Amino acid sequence: MTQLSHLFCARVRQEYDDTPNTSLDRLSIEQVRSAMNVWLEVTDSAAAVRRQRFQAELDKQRYYQHRNRQARTSHTKTRIRRLAAAGIDVARIKSCVPEERPP
Known about the structure:
Elements: H1 2-16, H2 29-41, H3 47-85
Helix pairs in contact: 1-2, 2-3
């Protein structure tokens, strides 16, 4: 059951995440799971309550996206500084991330 729910969240993320593939701010499976939990919790609630809970969830997810972006930037700067201190030129390191995703 856990694997099935994880697969469901991954497929929802894949279908509804409209950010570009190169963006680092893509939805995580955890964010999809959290949003699905809110949706399931409020299905029998009044429309106003649903809107309020959905907005609260959206605000929470935006906060975490922003916080994660800041942390990623900081960790990247630190990693580059450490590699430079070790004598490694980060501009010459080959990347294993493809430029574009194949169709």
